[in-house]
Every structure is written in structure tokens, then in C-alpha cells.
């Protein structure tokens, strides 16, 4: 509505802002857990947005780092992109934001004074992993993590992001698990099952599988023997990301495996020969399309006695990773295979020191992952699927391009050329399906078009019709669709200080444009304005501005300072973004 101030949106954008004297609200790094208030705590809060659309980015792993470069807290942002950290002491901090498929960004030099609240806006750029063209060169070398080449580094960086998200999920105790575990004896030649026992149990452990500290494994070996028997250990995310592991193992790209054309492999092996202890080497397998880590294969080196003849499928294991809709990652399946050594004795007519008479396999999988915060199922191996299609009713054909999302989650999928989509791996529950039209820049993220009830193992089918842009914009601006003025649009913006990137809250924002009316004998020009103010994170939204190519001048002012920019909206692009900077 022209000339009417737009209500400030608390979910708008901002960069870094301060407000003192607020009650402290505690958000632990392990989850958005609200705690008791305090008048003396320091708060570092903010939002993560996509740089072009200024819309919140979910499933970003944030690390709070102190002035000594120590990670103090970590947090996985939800669908609203917002976060909040309680700081025990004032000081200078940094925030690192990481998400698969986006460029990592670190915001440094965040000075937090006693009892201060600092608000941070972190803008991330999409950076597709694009591992499709990566191939191992003819002069492959195994290099330490600090010295790896550009292509190897791209693959390792993608793997590291998955492993880091899995490590965070485990350390935070995000889920408790229902597990299906088994123990088998396999034939040492054919690997066929001789016998098997299974157990189902619920565990409150933070990890479905857990390795020993990597310092111990590097000293004692990845397989040890004692009077009680042999013990074999698998590498987990904590071990693979540890400084000790990265200092003792080198990486190189694996030659293309024609049996796995959609995957790229990153090999690791020990820098030095293991000597008398048992070591490991392996391959991290990643999707060429998304860069997501699929699984880890590993094998044992230097096993004792006759067992040392076995490698790969006979003496090693696999750890499979699975990404959930909220950005967390879990170990979904795993197994370890261990040669069974017989003691010294007679074998036929010969006296032998020992031989392998079978392969022991211990493994399992996650049946359900249950959120420790809400008690809801976040993952189930008997999951459901939503399929559907989107039509453009105005043109009578499939709607494309675009994306489909589930309201309140981080799940998004692309529409194909026929406007069809499929969303799998969904735990049982009731979902709301929304369409993301590129021209609306995420304003339609919460505009549900259909509901879908998911039951284990079932598929729900929905048919969607793309709503008119004006209907979605009216809903985003808190208006009835009938009241929306045709030919108008929405401006999304933020205001930050030029040098410090501190978000500017409570600043006045005015959008101004000129309308021309042709009367019988004259042309009449009139200036129209809409005024609003930035929210606590420095963001603002202006509704009802012209979307017909008219020049719109946007001015922000506060305490005698001001800054302006000109923007243009169109019928095909009725939602625009603008970032304003205020100098001191």
C-alpha cells in the first residue's frame, strides 16, 4: 500500500549491530536451547543469508572462535538462518560459516564489550562443488593436507565439510538412536555368511559408532591383541579431522573407477610404514554432482601373522554417511571385517603357526534417529517420499525452473524440465509443501500450497499450481490478496556501517519514486514515498513499490548520516534487494 509504513520484520537482514542492556538469552552451540536471563552476559547473535536474494540460509555450521583461534562454541542454524551465542567473557571474536555447496566465510574482529549484544549478518555465496571434471593425474603423489594441490584440496574440502557436520552432530548429542546390529562369520574365500546373530537396541550414546582417541590408535595401532581377544577399530569423523591424523596421513585423488562413475575417490594412507603396529589406508567416496561424502572404505595394514595376507573386503570396513534435511549428518551404516586366526596346531599332516579360518564381521545401521530436543524422528530407514508436479495455470504448462521446499525445514529440490519433483528420506509426519519461484527471491518459502502426510515406506503424491506473484507478495506483507495493487513489488534490504560492518538498527528508510499522470491538457508529476525502519539485525522490507521499471530511490538516515541507492523492479522481477552503507 502506497504511503503506508511497512511493519518491521524481525526476520529481515542485518550485518553486525549492537544493543546493550538487553536480557541475555542463552543459545547453546549444540541446539537452540533457551536458558535463564542475565543482565551481565554478552550475546553474539545474527542471521546467515544468501548474498543475492538476502534470504535466510539454513543448515549452516557456525563456529565461534576466540582471539587465540580456539573454537569456543558451534551451532547449526535452522530454517530461519538465525543464531545466538552466549559469551562468558568480553573480547574479540570471529565467526566461521560453512555449508556444502557454499563458499566458506569468516567474519573477523567482532568486538564484544561487557554486557553487550552484537548482531552479525553473514552473507554466503553459492559455490557449486562441481567435482565432475576432477580426475587423477598421471603423476599422482600422496601429499599431506597442508601441501595438497588445488584439485585434491577441492575434494578434501568437500569431504571435510561433511565430516565436520557429522562431528558436530555427534558432539552436540543431537540424536539418540535405534540401532540394528549384527555379528557374522563369513567364509574367508567367498565372504558368504556362515552364521549370524542380530540385536536391536536403543542407545543414548551421541555416536552410533565410536573410535578410540586417535593419539592412542597412532601409538598402539588400529588393531590390538590382548588375552581377551583381538580388537579392531574404525576411523570416525573425529579421527579423520584431528590434527594428529592429518599430520600422519597423506591424500591423493584415486584413478576413476568405472564401476562408480558418479563418484570421485580421495585416498589416504600413512606417511610412514607402520613398523610393528597395525595401520589403515582407505578411500573417501564423494558425489561428483553435489560433493557430499557418501562413504569411507578402509583396509588394515600390517596385521599380525597370517591375517596380514588379507586386504580390502576381507580385512577392513565401510562407514556410510547420510545427510538430514536440517543440515546434520549421521553415520547411517557401517561394518568392520576381521580375519579370524586359529591358534598354532596341526592342519592336515602339517604343523602350522596359525591360519585364517574365517572372517568376522561386526556391523549395523541406524533404524531411527530421534531428536533429543523435540523427541521427533529425524531419520528412519523405512522413510517416506513426496512426489509431485507443479503446473503454471496461467500458461497451461509445467512450471519450470523453480524449486520445491518443505515449510519449516531445510529441504529443497529442483523441478525437472516437466515440473516434476521427488523428496525422499522423509521421516513419518505431516509436511507442508511450498514452491520457490526464482523471481520472488524466497518470499514464498513459507507459502504452503499443499499438505502431505508421510507414513513409513509410503509415497505421497501432490499436485501444485504456481500462485500469482501478487498473492504471495501480499501474504509476505501481511495483506489480503484483494488489497494488493497490481504492478507493485517488494524491496528487501539491509543497512550496515561502511567500515565496521556493524548492522544499523532503528534507522529510517525511505523509498521514493515519481509518478506521472497525463490529464487532458497537462502532465502531472507526483512524488510517492514509503517509510519504514531497520529491525534489530539491520534488515528492512518495503512493500508496494512500483514494479514497472520506475526508478526507486532508497535512502537510509540516522543521526545526521545518510546514504542512497537507486533500484528498479519489473513485472518479471517484482522482488528486489538493496544493501545500503552508512559512513561514520
Keyword list:
584 residues; mainly beta; Immunoglobulin-like; 11-stranded antiparallel beta sheet; 47% strand
Write a brief structural summary:
By secondary structure, the protein is mainly beta.
Q: Point out poorly predicted stretches.
A: 1-38
Number of H/I helices: 5
N-C termini distance: 33 Å
How many DSSP E strands? 38
Mean pLDDT over the residues: 84
Q: In what range is the share of β-strand residues?
A: over 45%
Walk me through what this model shows.
The protein is mainly β and 584 residues long. Among the domains are: 144-175 and 210-354, no CATH class; 384-467, Carboxypeptidase-like, regulatory domain (Immunoglobulin-like), CATH 2.60.40.1120; 486-582, Immunoglobulins (Immunoglobulin-like). It is built from five helices and 38 strands. The strands form nine sheets. Strands 9, 10, 11, 14, 15, 16, 17, 18, 19, 22 and 23 form an eleven-stranded antiparallel sheet that branches. A four-stranded mixed sheet has the order 1-8-2-5, with no helix packed on it. Strands 4-3-6-7 form a four-stranded antiparallel sheet, with helices on one face. A hairpin with a 2-residue loop joins β36 and β37 (561-568). 40% of the residues are buried.
Amino acid at each position: 500500500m502506497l504511503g503506508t509504513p511497512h511493519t518491521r520484520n524481525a526476520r529481515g537482514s542485518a550485518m553486525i549491530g549492537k544493543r546493550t542492556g538487553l536480557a541475555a538469552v542463552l543459545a547453546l552451540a549444540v541446539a537452540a536451547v533457551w536458558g535463564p536471563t542475565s543482565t551481565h552476559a554478552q550475546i553474539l547473535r545474527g542471521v546467515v543469508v544468501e548474498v543475492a536474494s538476502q534470504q535466510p540460509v539454513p543448515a549452516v555450521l557456525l563456529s565461534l572462535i576466540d582471539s587465540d583461534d580456539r573454537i569456543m562454541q558451534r551451532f547449526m542454524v535452522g530454517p530461519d538462518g538465525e543464531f545466538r551465542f552466549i559469551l562468558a567473557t568480553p573480547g574479540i571474536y570471529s565467526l566461521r560459516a560453512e555449508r556444502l555447496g557454499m563458499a566458506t566465510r569468516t567474519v573477523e574482529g567482532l568486538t564484544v564489550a561487557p554486557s553487550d549484544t552484537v548482531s552479525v549478518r553473514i552473507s554466503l555465496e553459492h559455490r557449486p562443488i562441481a567435482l565432475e571434471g576432477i580426475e587423477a593425474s598421471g603423476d599422482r603423489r600422496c601429499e599431506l593436507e597442508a601441501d595438497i594441490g588445488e584439485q585434491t584440496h577441492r575434494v578434501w574440502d568437500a569431504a571435510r565439510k561433511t565430516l565436520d557436520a557429522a562431528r558436530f552432530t555427534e558432539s552436540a548429542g543431537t540424536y539418540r538412536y535405534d540401532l540394528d546390529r549384527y555379528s557374522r562369520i563369513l567364509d574367508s574365500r567367498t565372504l558368504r555368511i556362515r552364521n549370524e546373530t542380530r540385536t536391536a537396541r536403543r542407545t543414548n550414546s551421541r555416536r552410533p559408532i565410536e573410535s578410540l582417541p586417535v593419539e592412542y590408535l597412532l601409538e598402539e595401532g588400529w588393531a590390538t591383541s590382548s588375552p581377551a581377544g583381538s580388537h579392531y577399530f574404525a576411523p570416525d569423523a573425529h579421527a579423520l579431522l584431528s590434527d594428529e591424523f592429518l599430520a600422519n596421513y597423506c591424500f591423493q585423488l584415486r584413478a576413476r573407477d568405472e564401476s562408480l562413475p558418479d563418484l570421485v575417490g580421495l585416498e589416504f594412507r600413512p606417511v610412514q610404514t607402520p613398523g610393528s603396529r597395525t595401520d589403515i589406508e582407505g578411500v573417501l567416496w564423494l558425489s561428483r554432482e553435489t560433493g557430499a561424502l557418501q562413504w569411507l572404505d578402509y583396509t588394515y595394514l600390517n596385521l599380525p601373522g597370517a591375517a596380514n595376507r588379507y586386504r580390502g573386503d576381507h580385512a577392513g570396513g565401510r562407514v556410510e554417511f547420510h545427510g538430514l534435511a536440517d543440515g546434520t549428518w549421521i553415520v547411517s551404516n557401517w561394518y568392520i571385517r576381521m580375519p579370524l586366526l586359529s591358534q598354532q596346531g596341526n592342519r592336515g599332516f602339517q604343523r602350522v603357526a596359525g591360519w585364517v579360518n574365517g572372517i568376522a564381521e561386526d556391523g549395523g545401521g541406524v533404524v531411527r534417529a530421534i531428536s533429543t530436543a523435540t523427541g521427533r524422528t529425524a531419520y528412519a530407514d523405512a522413510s517416506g517420499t513426496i512426489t509431485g508436479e507443479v503446473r503454471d495455470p496461467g500458461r497451461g504448462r509445467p512450471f519450470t525452473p523453480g524449486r520445491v521446499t518443505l515449510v519449516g525445514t531445510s529441504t529443497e529440490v529442483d523441478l525437472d524440465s516437466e515440473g516434476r519433483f521427488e523428496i525422499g528420506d522423509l521421516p513419518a509426519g505431516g509436511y507442508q509443501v511450498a514452491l520457490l519461484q526464482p523471481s520472488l527471491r524466497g518470499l514464498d518459502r513459507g507459502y504452503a500450497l499443499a499438505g502431505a502426510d508421510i507414513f513409513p515406506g509410503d509415497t505421497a503424491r501432490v499436485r501444485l499450481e504456481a500462485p500469482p506473484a501478487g498473492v504471495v507478495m501480499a501474504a509476505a506483507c501481511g495483506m489480503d490478496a484483494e488489497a494488493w495493487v497490481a504492478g507493485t513489488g517488494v524491496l528487501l534490504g539491509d543497512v550496515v556501517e561502511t567500515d565496521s560492518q556493524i548492522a544499523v538498527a532503528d534507522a529510517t528508510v525511505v523509498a521514493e519514486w515519481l509518478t506521472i499522470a497525463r490529464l487532458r491538457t497537462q502532465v502531472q508529476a507526483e512524488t510517492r514515498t514509503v517509510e519504514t525502519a531497520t529491525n534489530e539485525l539491520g534488515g528492512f522490507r518495503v512493500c508496494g513499490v512500483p514494479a514497472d521499471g520506475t526508478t526507486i530511490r532508497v535512502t537510509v538516515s540516522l543521526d545526521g548520516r545518510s546514504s542512497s541507492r537507486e533500484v528498479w523492479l519489473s513485472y518479471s522481477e517484482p522482488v528486489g534487494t538493496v544493501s545500503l552503507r552508512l559512513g561514520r
